[in-house]
Amino acid sequence: MTRPQALITVTVMLGVIMAILDMTIVNVALPTIAGNLGCSLDDAAWVATGYILAAVVVMPLNGWLTAYLGRKTFYCSAIALFTIASLFCGLTHSIVALTICRMLQGLGGGVLQPTAQAILFETFGPRRSAGAMAIFGIGIMVAPALGPVLGGYIVDNASWPLIFLINVPVGILTFLMALAFVPTPKYIERARRAIDWRALGLLAIGLISLQYVLERGQHEDWWDSQTIVTLAVVSAIALLTFGIVTVRDKYPIVNLHIFRVPSFSLGSVALFVVGFGLFGSELIVPLFFQSILGMTALDSGMALVPGAIATAVAMIVTTRMVNRFDPRIPLVTGALCAAWANWQLGGLTESAGMDNTFFPRMLVGFGMGMMFVPLTQLTLSAIPREELASATGLAQLIRQLGGSIGVAIIMTLLTRQTTIAWSGLAAGIRTTQGVPMPTMMKMLSQTASVIAFDDVFRLCALLFLGAIPILLLVRRGTAPVAAAAVPQPLAEAA
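^ that's the sequence the OP posted. Answer follows.
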């Protein structure tokens, strides 16, 4: 790695880690925020939801905004917006103002991930893209596990505004480094054209409605809620109309024609499935730790760290494999590891401890690490360098939506499977054998919850197994531009 490549890498990874941490760091602080701002926990949940709603809207616009503003201007603007919004998040004293600031923060954070991925892919070129994607993957897959740990520590030892204010000095440093080191390649610049406000409005309405349905569906009892039904219909109509308008537009704000590239379209399906399994398994493990094993949020976050370390190790190992062997070998191996580990987690009982979960969690992390590098490389390998910004934005959106859908389905299944298991257990009780009824009900509830968790763990295992045929179909492509997709000086230095 040359000095210019190292400086660019440090710059963009600082932005990625800030953006990813802020998706999870706030979750453990929500009860404290609700108490300090005098609002309900349901209202405080919008602090987390608002960030994600804003982020998913801006992700697919990455390519268009990069071309419209220029990479350096666009990227630096996103960092500035994220940093300023973080400052106001830490200074606000109103839940409404905090939610608005979090949405502004999400607009900036949603840019940092796909832009960083595109910059790294271009900086290192196709031949070294595996190493670049490993660096990127370590940031986006390890940071979520560190968020609850850091958030819990700050809330316990300082005050909740600090979870936002710590972004300010890091954001200023990242902004200055981006001004100095992030290039704006000439090939992604083009003449400015009028903004298609109709398409932009349809996209925003469709994605915000869809994300709201996924985030709040279980809480509002899904189709029994008129709000959920209405927004689901609005989302479907808006996104369908957006798709029709976009494919007919000569200069669309989202380049859907990228899906004509077979490796990208199949890779996107695989990313969706992997996002489902990743976000789903990462959700239910801390929930199991807290609700069944009685761990605190901080302790459950610490319990996820070994898996995150295994992910980082796997990415380093896989980087050396993908250029020597068929990338589908580590891809399928990772899926098998994740499937087997989740199936093992499906055998946990209420008497389980950390010793029962440590190895399966390490194996899940290792499997996810093995999958990320080759899957990302295969998905982007045939994309022309001029379209990398668009492709990475769409890829991150698909992964995020896969995760949101996975979380929504898994939370629904947990609730329903718990009810079914409780009914079955209760129906088999003929006598309490002298055990007080409240104690018996508590035991039944806990056992039913364990059964539901086990069912969901094994569903995740089957999902990873079911993804293997799709993973085998993804093949390495060749971009139309044969030269390394990087500014020429960096390509030569590499």
